[in-house]
């Protein structure tokens, strides 16, 4: 479980607060939706919860451990249990299959096994035809799906997805919902930001949070 306690965050000492006194928690095998207007702090919240940004004030606990007080090796071990996917991901040069397999390879998985797992991901999403395509030739929607598969193939405890449906047509949204539900059944939790809850049709949602001007104003 990842728990934020009285978290405040800003990008510079002179800048305004982007997150203000946020207390929130996320668990594996549950799905959370974070909503709010542009500039409300959604993306920053995800990056703090995904252990990428250190809060200016407050604590981030991972299974009860104060993450930012741990030594580097322990932080790395815990960070590997979560993934963050940006709305506009950057893909590596090379094929789609290489992009998906890359994270496994650098974690010590043999290349053949990594490629097999990547092919399974493509098959589960029904887009095996993309396997050998150059990553630079993909549409925005295709690139987004590849970046999500690249994250999920690592089998994280919690995946933080920033606007994952933003560039997808209805058919691809449906396929992605099915993939998220499959991984949820295997134990992965999801924290998803969105402007439009219509795109979430078919997704099992446990909690919804609404941010406004950096504050958590509603939880359901």
Characterize this entry briefly.
The protein is of the alpha/beta class. The protein contains 6 helices and 10 strands. The chain has one domain: Rossmann fold (3-Layer(aba) Sandwich), CATH 3.40.50.
Protein model, in words:
Helix 3 crosses helix 4 and helix 3 runs parallel beside helix 5. This protein has six helices and ten strands; from the N terminus they run E-E-E-H-E-E-H-E-H-H-H-E-H-E-E-E. The chain is α/β, with parallel strands linked by helices and 220 residues long. The chain has a single domain (2-219), classed as P-loop containing nucleotide triphosphate hydrolases (Rossmann fold). The longest helix has 16 residues, at 170-185. The strands form two sheets. The protein has a six-stranded mixed sheet, sandwiched between helices. The chain has helices at residues 42-49, 72-79, 96-106, 111-125, 140-152, 170-185; strands at 2-9, 19-26, 31-35, 57-62, 65-66, 82-85, 158-162, 189-194, 207-212, 215-219. The radius of gyration is 17 Å and the shape is globular. A hairpin with a 2-residue loop joins strand 9 (207-212) and strand 10 (215-219).
């Amino acid at each position: 479980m990842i728990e934020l306690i009285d978290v405040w965050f800003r990008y510079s000492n002179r800048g305004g607060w982007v997150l203000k006194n946020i207390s929130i928690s996320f668990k594996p095998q549950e799905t959370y939706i974070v909503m709010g207007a542009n500039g409300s702090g959604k993306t920053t919240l995800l990056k703090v919860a995904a252990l990428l940004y250190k809060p200016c004030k407050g604590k981030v606990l991972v299974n009860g451990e104060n993450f930012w007080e741990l030594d580097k090796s322990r932080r790395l071990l815990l960070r590997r249990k979560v993934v963050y996917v940006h709305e506009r991901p950057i893909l590596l040069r090379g094929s789609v299959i290489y992009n998906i397999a890359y994270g496994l390879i650098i974690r010590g998985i043999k290349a053949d096994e990594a490629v097999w797992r990547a092919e399974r991901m493509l098959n589960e999403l029904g887009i095996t035809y993309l396997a050998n395509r150059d990553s630079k030739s993909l549409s925005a929607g295709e690139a987004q799906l590849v970046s999500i598969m690249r994250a999920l193939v690592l089998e994280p405890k919690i995946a933080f997805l920033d606007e994952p449906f933003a560039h997808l047509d209805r058919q691809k949204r449906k396929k992605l919902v099915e993939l998220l539900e499959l991984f949820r059944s295997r134990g992965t939790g999801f924290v998803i930001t969105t402007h439009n809850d219509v795109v979430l049709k078919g997704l099992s949602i446990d909690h919804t949070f609404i941010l406004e001007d950096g504050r958590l104003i509603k939880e359901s």
